[in-house]
Amino acid sequence: MFYHLLYPLAEQFGVFNVVRYITFRTAAATLTALFISFLVGPWLIRRLAALRVGQPIREIGPDHQSKAGTPTMGGLLILLALMVSVLLWSELDNRFVWILLGLTAGYGLLGFIDDYKKVREGSSAGVSARMKLVWQTVLALGVGFAIYTDPNFDSELAVPFFKDFTPNLGILYVPLAAFIIVATSNAVNLTDGLDGLAIGPVMIAAATFLLLAYAAGHAVIADYLAIKYVPGSGQLAIFCGALVGGGLGFLWFNASPADLFMGDVGALALGGALGTIAVLIRQEVLLAVVGGIFVMETVSVMIQVASFKLTGKRVFLMTPIHHHYEQLGWPEQKIVVRFWIVSIILGLVALSSLKLR
Predict the structure, then answer these.
(1) What is the CA radius of gyration of the chain?
(2) Pure H helices in 75-128
């Protein structure tokens, strides 16, 4: 909105010329989201506590009963800060922005319904896994078709570290995009099990995609790095910046011991947003590196289930894998910080892959 309001004034007032730069608006969106989070966070916590929107704790697993009753649905804070900032600082005639906002809002609504049902029924069940998967898939397929019908779309898949290996998927790109979005959404949801554990890797992934989105939307940089040039995708850097700012603001209240939990309203939406960014900027495979923590959490569950069904034995003490380390006696803060460190390393590996081809 500010771009459309202020940039036309640049001819009379040169200071407004700065608004045309994506880098400036990305920084502004980051700070705006952070400010909104700090401003609204205390009120939201008090309001959720007054409504008794507390987190149900599973009886099976590590002893987290001391966290029972901590306000959940904190993802609302991130989504509010994120969306307001994006609407304020993005070019609103960019279709990528609306695709990303639509998917994020849709997954956020699904997560909100899930959280609300858990709170109302006082259990950790919520919406059935099958119903969640159906709606996630429907929304993700919509994004896949929207990307496939873009005039500038080509269905060649970029593979990290291989410059000339670009398989052409054709219409099969649509289900692949949907799978990536749904998988990332659920992977982030699995990771959200300790104070600050999910939001750290989400912010690190968003910061990495900020650089990748800017590069993909800049013809000269994209050509230099030999990555796909996606016209208009530079605007997604603003979304990524707002996500980093909103995430930082949320982390202020989510740091151990947490005053506010993310809930599915945040985890499903943020995971879906990361998956959507990856397919919009055509870095689908690289997402597995950037979001390696989420992949690790998901794979640990798959290994555990497969091993138990096939052999009757468990590979890990408990899954997702962060609970395995809890059962080994690691303090919660040590697990969280070490997972953040691994996320930073993976982000750097992903960025380095742009020239290692």
Answers:
(1) 20
(2) 75-89, 95-121
**Spatial distance between the Cα atoms of 232 and 235, rounded to a whole number of angstroms:** 6
CB 300 within 8 A of CB 306: no
Q: Report d(CA 62, CA 56) in Å as an integer.
A: 14
Structure tokens at 107: 């997954």
- pLDDT tens for each residue of 278-328: 999 999 999 999 999 999 999 999 999 999 999 999 999 999 999 999 999
SS3 26: helix
In terms of C-beta density within 10 A (0-12 exposed, 13-18 middle, 19 or more buried), how is residue 276 classed?
buried
SS3 for 159?
strand
Q: Give the number of C-alpha atoms closer than 13 A to the C-alpha of residue 126, restricted to the C-beta side.
A: 23
Selection from 249, 236, 251 nearest residue 200 by Cα: 251
Q: With a threshold of 0.70, does the pTM exceed it?
A: yes
Check: CB of residue 291 under 8 Å from CB of residue 201: yes
Backbone angles phi, psi at 124, to 5 degrees: -100, 15
